[in-house]
Amino acid sequence: MTTLTRPRFATGAADHIVAAVPALWLVAFFLAPLGFTVVFSFGRNLFGGVELAFTFDNYRTALTGFNGTTLLRTIIFAASASALCLAAAYPVAYFLARHTQRRRALAVVLILVPYFSSFLIRIMALHMLMSRGGFAESVLNALYLHSGPLDVLDTQLAVFIGMVYAYLPIAIVPLFVVLDRIPKPLLEASRDLGASRFKTFVFVTLPLSRPGIATAVLLTAVPMLGEMVIPKLLGGSKGVLMGQAISSQFLQSQNYPLGAAMAVLVLLVIGVIVVLLARLTKGFAEVGQ
User: Fold this and answer.
1) What is each CA distance from 263 to 21, 39, 260, 266, 268, in whole angstroms?
2) Residue among 233, 231, 214 nearest 222 (CA)
3) In this structure, what are the phi and psi dihedrals at residue 104, rounded to the nearest 5 degrees?
4) Which of 6, 19, 89, 136 could bond 171 through an S-S bridge, CB–CB 3.0 to 4.6 Å?
């Protein structure tokens, strides 16, 4: 009986074609627009057009005055909201990993179902809850935690609440996956050697969950830096962040070079976050050994 084998060059060509499709997609729809954005950021504004040049005036404008304040506020919002998401998600993920053996799948589905619903509908539902005469006002007044109408909308607090609410589910999943994969014998060995539950958590569980922490921060902080819908619907004129400011430069002011410079600055901030998270997870393999 003879076995037919495909020629090696045919297999290699097929592999190259399969690899070329996503590579071309990446070049056409990510690298090329990114390149144009960087080039435009050094250009001069022609009120709806761009004159190619090499000037840092756009970056100077993006880092000073209202734009600089907006960039700083965006970074603070993203960092604080991501930290709160992490602080709220970690106990939930820990509970799912340790105490939901039988109904774990159901618990994960219940957490993720709201996330898979329409993002706009979720934010509008939150808008109605926080509006005057809404459910939140009724509950707070009934519990004597607040008196009178609730004026939360069109404030930066509403934007912060909206960000945590929108991105919390996606922070739970990576933490749950990592915590669930921590070998239980490691935890039992720590307890057998005399470590308390707290020390076992600090010196064993927490270090081994660094990849989950880094992923949760990446999945929440990065989209928050470019978030535009939540500030517009919940913050009004008082909740302007960089996503909204960049959109305004491109769609209203038609100052493409300034908008491109602001976008590049956001990308640089994201790059710094990625580098810091990469350093956080560096040497993870050695920790688990």
Assistant:
1) 27, 12, 5, 5, 9
2) 214
3) -65, -45
4) 89
Instruction: Extract the tokens encoding 97.
Output: 């990993």
Query: Exposed, middle or buried: residue 37 (CB in 10 Å: 0-12, 13-18, 19+)?
Result: middle
Answer yes or no: are the C-beta atoms of 214 and 281 closer than 8 Å.
yes
Contact yes or no for 63/265 (Cβ under 8 A): yes
Q: Which residues pair with residue 45 across a beta bridge?
A: 50
For 7-40, write each residue's pLDDT tens digit: 666 667 777 888 888 899 999 998 999 999 999 9
- What is the pLDDT, as a whole number, of residue 287? 47
Do 229 and 148 touch, CB atoms closer than 8 A? no
DSSP assignment letter at 234: I
pLDDT tens for residues 127-183?
Answer: 999 988 888 889 988 988 888 888 888 888 999 999 999 999 999 999 999 999 999
Contact between 71 and 62 (Cβ < 8 Å): yes
Provide the percentage of residues in the chain whose pLDDT is more than 90: 53
Give the whole-angstrom CA distance, residue 33 versus residue 183: 44
* DSSP structural state of residue 28: I
Block residue for tokens 């688990």: 288
The total of other beta-carbon atoms located within 10 Å of residue 23's CB is: 12
